[in-house]
Design a protein that fits this description.
Layout lengths: L1 H35 L3 H4 L9 E9 L2 E11 L2 E5 L5 E5 L3 E7 L4 H8 L9 H32 L5 H10 L5 H15 L6 H4 L7 H12 L4 H8 L4 H12 L1 H17 L2 H6 L8 H11 L4 H21 L1 H10 L5
Antiparallel strand pairs: 1-2, 1-5, 2-3, 3-4
Length: about 325
């Protein structure tokens, strides 16, 4: 009995710690979604409410019941405004106040349809731009990183270990160091104000993803390559038909991380994109925040819309994501 109770206490303590750890993470998320469904008045109300409510009040004057606007509560009742604009004090006995949960979806319409009166608000176009960049980045990262990893894992050549170490060492170079040279290179190529600076680097392999693929490929017996060679497969055909399909968990991991990087990238579009029609969602969100700086619910609605695809991708691929990170470190 004692070990069973000890196990239950440890499990309860573990869940308690996890719940406490989730509060600072989920708190801002819940507040962002809640604020996106409020009016500006509700967002500025004190004390704040997680679930916005709509307050309706009626005043009984004799046998007549009239709707009034509740201004503030006082000790004897409340201060209300009648339909003709007259402000009076109403007693608690004569006043009937009801509160009902109310969700204001106009903030999402303002973001999606550009009904806020600002020029250049085109959420569908920004979404399409971001999906194009993210999709091509995912394909390029998977193909290039897996091909380079296959070379390091399966091909024998002089200096292979040295080159692999140099490649991993480049991960320690801050991105800010190469920012100016990259901009000069892309400007000389005529790529400024295009998607190419945001897509082409993904087709040149990533050291971290090459490492993941290499670790996985080295865990596959070389006898599979030899059997494929006997059947007439070339080395590239072996990579494409056998090794890459087996690396599906790693490919999903690489794809998810590439999607997150392209979806959340703000600095790259900020540097290379000048046209309003070529904005990505992250850049559009920054512009939107500047235009609607006083409209907090609209800004929260835009942030919520941008977060939804990230959450969907994560929860759909969570199991494969963990599996890909696990199997890549089995053998090295």
């Amino acid at each position: 009995m004692k070990p069973r109770w000890t196990h239950r206490l440890r499990t309860a303590a573990l869940y308690f710690v996890l719940i406490l750890g989730c509060i600072p993470i989920l708190g801002p998320l819940v507040w962002m979604i809640s604020t996106s469904l409020k009016t500006q008045e509700d967002a500025a109300a004190y004390p704040p409410r997680v679930i916005p409510v709509r307050v309706t009040a009626t005043l009984n004057v004799g046998e007549v019941t009239m709707p009034v606007e509740l201004i503030r509560k006082i000790e004897t009742g409340a201060v209300v405004r009648k339909a003709d604009g007259t402000v009076v004090e109403a007693r608690t006995a004569d006043l009937h106040v009801t509160e009902q949960p109310y969700l204001d979806w106009s903030n999402y319409r303002k973001v999606l349809l550009g009904t806020g009166g600002r020029d250049g608000d085109d959420f569908p176009r920004y979404l399409l731009n971001t999906l194009v960049i993210a999709g091509l980045s995912i394909v390029g990262t998977i193909l290039s990183s897996s091909l380079v990893a296959w070379g390091f894992a399966r091909r024998r050549f002089a200096g292979r270990g040295l080159l692999f170490g140099v490649m991993l060492a480049t991960m320690m170079i801050p991105a800010q160091v190469t920012m100016v040279p990259s901009f000069i290179l892309y400007r000389n190529l005529g790529w400024i104000d295009s998607f190419l600076p945001l897509i082409v680097p993904a087709w040149l392999a990533s050291p971290f993803f090459v490492f993941l693929y290499r670790q996985f490929f080295m865990g596959i017996p070389t006898e599979m390559d030899e059997a494929a060679e006997v059947d007439g497969c070339s080395p590239i055909a072996t990579y494409w038909s056998i090794l890459l399909p087996l690396a599906r968990p790693v490919s999903i991991t690489v794809g998810v991380y590439s999607f997150f990087g392209a979806w959340n990238d703000l600095l790259g579009p900020l540097i290379y994109i000048n046209s309003d029609q070529k904005r990505t969602l992250s850049l559009a969100l920054a512009k939107f925040q500047g235009a609607y700086s006083t409209d907090v619910p609209a800004v929260m609605a835009a942030a919520t819309l941008m977060l939804i695809p990230v959450l969907v991708v994560f929860f759909v691929s969570q199991r494969s994501l963990i599996q890909g990170m696990t199997v890549s470190g089995v053998k090295g």
